[in-house]
């Protein structure tokens, strides 16, 4: 328990590290991989010193459950960091908000407006139309296409219709630039910034991270200001999230939860950053895994043909009848979790876990990527892409990604589990289903499976393949999705 006194304060095992910097220089460009290797030597509960900060790394399902279920209340804050300060409006957002009334208010608001069963249902036609648009584009391409970039535009537009009531990107205006801004943010946020761990060096900004963050913040702020100005000019302000936020701003007067323009922009920033790349990279990984296993792709297409036929596109209501497709999505999240180290948490008080002392203020990293590869949790060929493990008769039948099965927590778990889980999961399932149903994918690529560095798990080499239509003509040409 957390309040017991500790007779001997033994930290979890870990590497020694250098003076001053501790283990920062050893993390490398893909810390989730480095930490996975370290956990092989030191065990599932690892202690590192990064500068003056104690960092605890969890690498198995059982230990993750101890932190995110048993001790979750003690780890419901996020540690301070330069990204939250310089990009996310000095913690006035949702992702980095201290666990308290404002955090609760923002989460409730998003749940109600965007992620509840009813909100998801109300916006179902919007997602359908955006995906149909992408399918039409791909059906006319006739040449290799950058799947991730196009999926990203589609996901961002579907999200922006819900959040600001309109599509933010036309055919080519600014979509690439916006995606590049999110990629840059994820890259910067994925670097262990020396200044965050060695306060004495913060002013030096030795890696130049803070400078880049400030510059990037200005670009995001400009984008968000423009969104809000354009929203004011919109004739039909139905009930998108921004309309609700602006109305609340006028009404609320309770100091603790008062919404200002800054809080509104910070929340929009969170949604656009947390909700777009995470989703589109998962879709890209799922597709590449299927394309490189033609037998599996064929089985998924068979399942789709038998449920959907070949004369229309997939509809979200088909998803519940597609167990193999759902298993493919789970398997994708297992091997390619969109945020391999989740998002950090911080210990509010000293506590004891598995007999080890965890000091107050310690940063908790949950290595979701390592957990998905742990041979104890996944004894049957842990490194192979085998969705059948989730089907009836498989070892992991019944396991899902919603935070209760700790061997598979791509959305995290506990109080600060991903706020957008319902939407993110739905989008990934729907888009993967639609794209493999509507197309065969021609390529002579070797499908490099390298990962890029950053907070999010992008592919090092984008998937570029030629979509070859496989449905009847009408399926692609319907003006509106039904
Ligand atoms: C495939 C899609 C997604 C994945 C894999 C994912 C993953 C995650 C993870 C691992 C966390 C940290 C959870 C923790 O600390 O335990 C998180 C937090 C969060 N995600 Fe997602 N996410 C996805 C999609 C989305 C979408 C679509 C949105 C919104 C539009 C969203 C909004 C958020 C927010 C606001 C938080 C912070 C929650 C808090 O601090 O209370 N995410 N996500």
TrEMBL record:
Q: Which UniProt keywords apply?
A: Heme, Iron, Metal-binding, Monooxygenase, NADP, Oxidoreductase, Signal
Read off the InterPro entries from this record. Answer: Cyt_P450 (IPR001128), Cyt_P450_CS (IPR017972), Cyt_P450_E_grp-I (IPR002401), Cyt_P450_sf (IPR036396)
Please give the Pfam families that the UniProt record associates with this protein.
p450
Task: Give one GO term, molecular function aspect.
Answer: heme binding
Annotated binding of heme, by residue: 418
Swiss-Prot/TrEMBL cofactor(s)? heme
Q: Which domain of life is it from?
A: Eukaryota
Q: Which PROSITE patterns does this one have?
A: CYTOCHROME_P450
Quick check: keyword Iron in the entry?
Answer: yes
Family membership, please give it. Belongs to the cytochrome P450 family.
The organism of origin for this protein: Vanilla planifolia (Vanilla)
Gene3D superfamilies per record = Cytochrome P450
| Name used for this protein in its record | Flavonoid 3'-hydroxylase
């Amino acid at each position: 328990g957390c309040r017991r006194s500790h007779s001997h304060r033994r930290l979890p095992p870990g590497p020694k590290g250098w003076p001053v910097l501790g283990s920062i220089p050893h993390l490398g460009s893909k810390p989730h991989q480095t930490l996975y290797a370290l956990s092989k030597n030191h065990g599932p509960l690892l202690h590192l010193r990064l500068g003056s900060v104690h960092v605890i790394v969890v690498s198995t399902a059982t230990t993750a459950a101890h932190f995110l279920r048993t001790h979750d209340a003690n780890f419901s804050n996020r540690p301070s960091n330069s990204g939250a300060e310089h990009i996310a409006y000095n913690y006035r957002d949702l992702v980095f908000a201290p666990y308290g009334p404002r955090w609760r208010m923002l989460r409730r608001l998003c749940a109600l407006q965007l992620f509840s069963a009813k909100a998801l249902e109300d916006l179902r036609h919007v997602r359908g139309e955006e995906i149909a648009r992408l399918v039409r584009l791909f059906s006319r391409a006739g040449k290799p296409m950058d799947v991730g970039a196009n999926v990203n535009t589609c996901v961002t537009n579907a999200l922006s219709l819900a959040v600001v009531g309109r599509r933010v990107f036309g055919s080519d205006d600014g979509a690439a630039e916006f995606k590049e801004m999110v990629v840059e943010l994820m890259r910067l946020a994925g670097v262990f910034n020396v200044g965050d761990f060695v306060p004495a060096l913060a002013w030096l900004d030795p890696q130049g991270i803070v400078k880049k963050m400030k510059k990037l913040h200005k670009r995001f702020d400009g984008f968000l200001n423009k969104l809000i100005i354009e929203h004011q000019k919109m004739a039909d302000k139905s009930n998108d999230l921004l309309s609700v936020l602006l109305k609340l701003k006028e009404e609320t007067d309770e100091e603790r939860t008062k919404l200002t323009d800054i809080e509104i922009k910070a929340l929009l920033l969170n949604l656009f950053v947390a909700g777009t790349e995470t989703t589109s990279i998962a879709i890209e990984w799922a597709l590449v895994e299927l394309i490189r296993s033609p037998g599996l792709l064929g089985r998924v297409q068979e399942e789709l043909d038998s449920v959907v036929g070949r004369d229309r596109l997939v509809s979200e209501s088909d998803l519940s009848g597609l167990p193999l497709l759902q298993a493919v999505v789970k398997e994708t999240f297992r091997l390619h979790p969109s945020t391999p180290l989740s998002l950090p948490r911080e210990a509010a008080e000293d506590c004891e876990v598995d007999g080890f002392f965890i000091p107050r203020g310690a940063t908790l990293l949950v290595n979701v990527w390592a957990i998905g590869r742990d041979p104890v949790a996944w004894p049957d060929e842990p490194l192979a892409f085998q969705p059948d493990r989730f089907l009836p008769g498989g070892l992991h039948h019944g396991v899902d990604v919603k935070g209760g099965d700790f061997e598979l927590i791509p959305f995290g778990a506990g109080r600060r589990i991903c706020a957008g889980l319902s939407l993110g999961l739905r989008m990934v399932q729907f888009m993967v289903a639609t794209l493999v149903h509507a197309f065969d994918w021609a390529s002579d690529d070797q499908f490099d499976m390298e990962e890029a560095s950053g907070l999010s798990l992008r592919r090092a080499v984008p998937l570029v393949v030629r979509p070859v239509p496989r449905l009847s003509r009408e399926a692609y040409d319907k003006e509106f999705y039904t």
